[in-house]
Amino acid sequence: MKPVKTLLLALAAAPCAAANINATPVQSIEPKELCIAENLDVQQNFRDAMQKAIEARGYAVKFVPTKTDCPVTMTFNAVYAMSGGWRRVLKFSDFIVYRDAEVIGSVHFRFSRKPSGNGTVEEVIIKMVEALLP
After folding, report:
1. Which of 2, 28, 56, 126 matches a 20 to 30 Å C-alpha distance to 9?
2. 3-class DSSP state for residue 39?
3. Residue 28: how many CB atoms within 10 A of its CB?
């Protein structure tokens, strides 16, 4: 009975690890070039971590003023809040990829109060990029 119980607990915990990230993956982007529409409301360190994660997937990244400046463009957003009154946490983030102004993929993160935590902002960004881009 104990092995069954352990297996059930492991299976129950597995979806929780990614339960706060929902994605509709992009099927393909060729060549691997992705323009990113600037969002000056998002912190520079978030933008830098996002760019690094995308480049690690083999994409060339170019920041542009608007989502209509390239055939394939990604928009992004990130919202932080105070948690416990003493630390900032990422509460919400989304990346949406467009091809000729039509959505071809998206990923959304929402903070959850699960026992295992959400990971660092960089870890969340990496998970989002991995879920979104092939």
Report:
1. 126
2. coil
3. 10
**SS3 state at 127:** helix
* Reported pTM: 0.80
Going residue by residue through the chain, which has 134 residues, state the pLDDT in tens, using 9 for 90 and above.
Answer: 444 443 333 433 333 344 489 999 999 999 999 999 999 999 999 999 999 999 999 999 999 999 999 999 999 999 988 766 676 788 899 999 999 989 999 999 998 776 556 778 899 999 999 999 98
Q: Which residues pair with 87 in a beta bridge?
A: 83
CA angle 12, 18, 24 (to 5 degrees): 125
Burial of residue 129 (number of CB atoms within 10 Å: 0-12, 13-18, 19+): buried
Structure tokens at 85: 């009154």
Query: What residue spans of 19-133 are helical by DSSP H?
Result: 44-56, 121-132
What's the one-letter identity of residue 25?
A: P
Extents of the domains making up the chain: 2-132
The CATH class for the domain spanning 2-132 reads alpha beta
